[in-house]
Every structure is written in C-alpha cells, then in structure tokens.
Amino acid sequence: MKSVEYALVNPWATEADVRRHCGHAMEQGFGSVSVAGHWLPLCARMLDSAGIMLATSVNFPFGTAFPVVKAYEAVRAIQFGATKEIAVMMNHGLISAGDMPAVTEEIRLLKYEIFGSSGTRKLLSSSSRLGIIIDAYLGEDDFLRLCQQAMVESVFVQIGTGLSGEVVRPEDVSFAKGVVGDSVELKAAMTEGIDRSFDTGKAAALLKAGATKVVLAADASAVFSKKPGVVRGEMGGV
Asked: How would residue 214 be classed by pLDDT, with cut points 50, 70 and 90?
C-alpha cells in the first residue's frame, strides 16, 4: 500500500471530509496523501506522526493559470507542508497547439521558484520532487514530447488526473516507460470505486507496467457533477 497516493479531488470537500480522508489513508497504510492547498496545514498536523507523505496538485484540474500564479501556489504549498512532492497541472491548450517552448518555460519557472528560492529551499530535502500532470487522453505525439521534456527537466510525470471517466491503461504507462526509462518517476492515476472500493488488480497492473506509484482519486465523481444550489435547483437555473 506504500505505493498508493490517496488524493482527495472533490472541490466541495469539507474539513470533516478531509479528516476522514486522512484517517482512511492511515487505516489502509497508504504511502502518501494529496489534498488541495487549503487543507495542507490540517493534513500536515494529522499525518505528522503517521509516516505518510503529504503532497498536493497545483492548479488542478485545468492547468490554465498564469505560470507565475502556479509558481506562487507551489511555493505556498511547500510552506504549508507539501515539502516532498508538488505536481503541477500542465496547460493542455499549449500542448495541443504544439507550443512546447511555453510549456518548457513554465516548468523552468516552477523549478526556479521552488528550488532556487532560499525561502523554500531550506524547507526541502534532497528527495523533494516537482512533477507534471498530463491528461491520459493526449495524442501520442504530445504525450511523447512531454515525456521527453520531463527527462530533460528531471521532473516526474503523473499520467492522468483520476477524475471520473478518465482511464489510464497499463499500455499508457508502458509507452511512457519506454520513453523515459528509469530516469523519470511515473505515477498513474485511477479512480476510487463506490464505498471506497479499491481495484487492487488494476493498481497492480499499472505498477507492473512501470508506474512507481498509483494515485487513487477519492470523490472523483463530484468534480464535474451538478451540485444543487442557488443557480441550479432552488431557482430552477441551468
């Protein structure tokens, strides 16, 4: 279970949800927990003595913010406890347009702000890592270019977001592994089932294909679901 990162991706998660999420991770013996930046201080306190690594995803799930905004979010995440792993959602519009220079510039800005700043460097260790999140549905050429760039920049790659409906296949991991070899860490995302069920067979297949870690996304179905509220439901909106 140490090869599982338990990620809470529900944007409507409350403090009680976050506490349950961390509690479940401790019960199951997962190796790491990933939460949104707002919840990092709480999770840092809860997981401090449990031996579970704390991580976060920056500008998740769209990746379209200005690079300087992503860098600021990453730095603040480190300051609030995510000192081991920071995964940044890439701008897939730039990738699809073939603007790799802009993608490269973003990665290098993030590396500079995280590892080049004395304010964050003192909080990091030699094992601290920056990574990029790429959509599992990217075309093969775009996927190839990003994996190659990850090698050049020495950042890990997370394949997929774990959001409901997205499927990362073992062959996707094998393809990436064939590009990066052992020089880049690969994560593969999958979605947690109903009632916190966990498809251990699928996780094992992803790990066998070359993933070093499986990102298990919890409450993924809530991200794009229609939530009743003022606009929908009570006032009969969209």
From this structure: very high
CA–CA separation, 6 and 33 (whole Å): 5
Contacts of 153 (CB under 8 A, 6+ apart): 104, 107, 108, 111
d(CA 160, CA 188): 6
pTM, two decimals, is: 0.87
The third-level CATH classification (topology) of the domain covering 4-222 is TIM Barrel (3.20.20)
Cβ distance 165 to 203 under 8 Å? no
Q: Which letter does DSSP use for residue 221 in this model?
A: G
Residue 197, CA distances (Å) to 16, 28, 192, 201, 236 in order: 20, 12, 6, 12, 35
Express each pLDDT in 86-107 by its tens digit. Answer: 999 999 999 989 999 999 999 9
Mean pLDDT of 99-127: 84
Task: Judge residue 178's burial from the number of C-beta atoms within 10 Å of its C-beta, 0-12 exposed, 13-18 middle, 19 or more buried.
Answer: exposed
Q: At what angle do helices 100-115 and 140-153 cross, to 10 degrees?
A: 30
